Amino acid sequence: MSGAPCVFCRIVEGTEPSQPVYEDAHTIAFLNVAQATKGHTLVVPRRHHRDLTEIPPEEAAHVMRATVEVAGRLTRALRAPGINLWHASGETAWQSVFHFHIHVVPRYATADLTPPWTEYALPLASLRGLAEEIRSGA
């Protein structure tokens, strides 16, 4: 797949420079060039899948296993007391590279990042209709 248009596919094939921190038969993890915090790493499947809706569950499981491994390495090597995982599927969710990936972001202090959204607590009973809609697949 030489000359792949996807930057992550080019990283996988070795034609785009990167700084890998972990690799296995199914995944590669490399430092994000835009570090949110020191050690911010991306974990990607070697096969191209656009987003969460397209990746087969067994490949997603490989990515999650690699994510757990990378999180442990970041925690130990960088003495990060916390880790955030971030994934975005679709442009409206802020996905900017359309190759499935998970961000593993080491955390050093509660204030080193800004939360991406504001949560509003709702009465549990008010969520009944929404839960039913999701369960029914509507």
Automatic annotation (TrEMBL):
Gene3D superfamilies: HIT-like. InterPro entries: HINT (IPR039384), Histidine_triad_CS (IPR019808), Histidine_triad_HIT (IPR001310), HIT-like (IPR011146), HIT-like_sf (IPR036265). The active site is at H101. A motif (Histidine triad motif) lies at residues 99-103. One of its GO terms (biological process) is nucleotide metabolic process. Residues 7-115 form the HIT domain. GO terms for molecular function: catalytic activity. It comes from the Bacteria. Pfam families: HIT. PANTHER family: ADENOSINE 5'-MONOPHOSPHORAMIDASE HNT1, HIT FAMILY PROTEIN 1. This is HIT family protein. It comes from Nonomuraea turkmeniaca.
